[in-house]
Amino acid sequence: MKQPDPKKDNPWRAVALTSAIGIDLAVCVGAGYWIGELFSGFMGGGQMWVLGGVMLGFAAAVASIYLLIKFTGGL
């Protein structure tokens, strides 16, 4: 029977991954909001640029979180 790897069974590793996911989500959505505000100021058009920026930031966050979990061995 294969013994579990003690490096992967560390609870602090799970805490770090959870924190990284939260920070990644906040930074990507915040950056999307900022880019949307920037485009809204340059191009005009109201809040549609902000909404598009937030949606783009959320999509980037989902992709980034997927890759983060995949490379740390969660998937």
What does this protein structure show overall?
- The protein has 75 residues and is mainly α.
- The two termini are 22 Å apart.
- It contains two helices and no strands.
- Helix 1 runs antiparallel to helix 2 (48-71).
- The longest helix has 33 residues, at 11-43.
- The model has no long low-confidence stretch (mean pLDDT 88).
- Helix content is 76%, strand content 0%.
Throw out a few tags for this protein.
single chain; about 80 residues; mainly alpha; rod-shaped
Shape: rod-shaped
The number of distinct β-strands equals 0
Order of helices and strands: HH
Contiguous helical run count: 2
Low-confidence region ranges? none
Secondary structural class: mainly alpha
Task: Give the amount of beta strand, in percent.
Answer: under 5%
Largest sheet: none
Helix content: over 70%
The average pLDDT value, as a whole number, equals: 88
Short description:
The protein has two helices and no strands.
Ordered list of secondary-structure elements with their pairings:
Layout: H1 11-43, H2 48-71
Helix pairs in contact: 1-2
